[in-house]
Amino acid sequence: MTFLVAVLTGLGVGSGGIYILYLTLIKDIPQAEAQGMNLIFFITATLAAATVNLIKKRISFVCIAFTVPLGILGAVGGSYVASVVKSETLGIMFGVLLMVIGISGFIKLRKKGKSDG
Length: 117
Fold this sequence. Notes:
The protein contains 5 helices and no strands. By secondary structure, it is an all-alpha fold.
C-alpha cells in the first residue's frame, strides 16, 4: 500500500488523504495516529524531493525564508488544535476538508474545460 501511495504522490494525486482514509477506514487506525503516520511519510518524501531540487539548484532561498516560519507556525497551531479536539471531530473536519478540496478541483476543471473549447 505504501508503494501505491508513493506512486500516486508522484502523479500528483492527493495521496496523503487517500492514505489517511485507508488507515482509518480499512485498517481501523485512530485518526490522530493515521495523521502521524502520514506526516512521517510526507517528511520522508519531502526530504527526498528537497535533496533532488538542491542538487539541481531549483530552490529559492528567499521563498524558503518566507515559507518556513509560516510552516512552523502552522505546525504548532495545528498540533495545538489536534491536542484539544476529539479524534472523531478531527475525522469529520478532515472529511469536510477533502470534500471542499475535491469540489474546488472539480469546479476549476469544469471552468478550464469551458474556456478551452
